[in-house]
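Hi Y.,

Following your request, here is the sequence exactly as I used it, all 400 residues.
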Amino acid sequence: MKQKLLSLLVLLMTAATGAWAQEEDYDFDVHFQPDYYPHGTHFDCMIMKMGSGEIKGTLYLSVDGKLKDSFPVDDYMVAGFIDPIDAGYHTWSVEFKPDGGGSFNKEGDFTIEKADIDDIYYSGSTSINLGVGESTELYVDIYPNEAGELSYSSSNASVASITKNEYSYNTYIIQANAAGTATITFSFAGSTNYKAAADKDKTITVTVWPAIDVTANEGATSEFWATFYSNGMNYQAPLGTQVFKVALAGSAITMTEITDRIVKSGQGVVLKKTTSGSITMTPTSSNSSDNYSGNSLVGTMTNITNPGNAYVLSKKNGVVGFYKLSGSGTIGANKAYLTYSGGAGAREFFSIEGNVTGIEMPKAATTNNDAEVYDLQGRQVANPTKGLYIVNGKKVFINK
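Below is the corresponding structure, written out as tokens. Let me know if you'd prefer a different format.
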């Protein structure tokens, strides 16, 4: 009887010892990468054994109740990558099966924070000029690409609207609808795994320029003249209108035609056509292929009082030229003019010469004592010699 009781006691102690080892011989300390990473989530697990001997076996890792992977164990530390885990709260569990048999488990929880985006990428100018009816395409991207979709908006869609180009990756189309200014904003409000990017918003200012009607005044028969200036964007004259730059060298004017009729921003020009009526200048994003070097015309976008030594295009006594503006005279918006300070007191006008003339063909003549005679540089001449002059508003050749 005593022998049976002793055997039963040993059996119970063995069973009790085995149950304690099942729960207490191994412990686990598991850590996960704290921030979201799109290419995988890193984890490490430290395995602690209460007794002596090697730690060998297989570790099974589950997240949110789903097995992620198994890892061979031959040391106290196991680490590796598993499929990416979304940002947020999660639970984990591990099961360790030693090579000698048995199974040991532990579970816990962890949180993965949303990641920051690197940038909203835009390589173009943040200030765009368009003419009414024009459009332009922008490439705007977010890094990393998998963060999500950009949002975009216009502060004034009636001036400039924006749509995404569905046929081209991360490209957007800005359409100019009416004259004015609008701000285009690209932003990222955040997603499942990425934080919002309020501090990385990209803004683009769009200025839409209108067509400008320029009044042309009659010069000689079937010749109508005007000047034009804009420093906002390029403009193009319509077919049938000639465009000229004007070079003032010393006291001589040379007019050179701009053959593509495109007026570069910041350049003044003379316009000429052979029919009456206004000239509609159209804004364009195209660049002129002509050379504007040597152009002496300047201009203004608004009405201004004579800035000093200004000469404006006009017709007096039948002669078209740049006439000296009175001190209180004004220059209209989008008009071009010349400035001249060399002997301004003696010079009243510069006649248009060179490639184009708005003056009648010269005729041989002699003068009388009452005639007003000017040389071609606009200086009054008291005693003209043989040559070409302006006499009483007509271009004549004096032969004496």
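Confidence is low (pLDDT under 50) at residues 1-24, 353-367.

Thanks again,
Q.
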